[in-house]
Amino acid sequence: MTSRQFVTFDVANEFFGVPVEIVQEVLLNEKYTPMPLAPDGWGGLFNLRGEVIGTVDLQVRFGRPRRSMSGPIVNVVVLVGGEPVSLLVDRIGLVADLDDAAFELPPDTLTGPTRAMIVGSYKTEDRLLLVLDVDECVNTARAAI
């Protein structure tokens, strides 16, 4: 039996996960610099130990209103094409170890902009975990077309 590990988190009361191997770190941050002329899904920039990190507001990517960028926000810093990008989330969860045999295609009931960003799902004990396609999440240019 093979399994995969996912870092889990909530965005707008939905349960998501990304493969643990692409997660650089999880942190709280309060100071963001706006990104003028950036596509809607970008939340801002912040400095992480001398490296400038762009943030993607998953609420906007999922068709919801933009979050307030004041106060501490949970950042899941993932590697996309070898570069760090932060996904802004509401709450971080645990690392889930899930059996590959339990993986399913995205549910047919999933519609709207979120559907293109989901590669599949797992039924956990109490919730449906939606697995994000991180490359698609950070592709905010496609959302603007």
UniProtKB/TrEMBL annotation:
CheW-like domain boundaries: 3-143
Transmembrane domains' residue ranges: none
Superkingdom assignment: Bacteria
InterPro entries listed in its UniProt record: CheW (IPR039315), CheW-like_dom_sf (IPR036061), CheW-lke_dom (IPR002545)
Pfam families referenced in this protein's UniProt entry, alphabetically: CheW
Protein name per UniProt: Chemotaxis protein CheW
Source organism: Paractinoplanes hotanensis
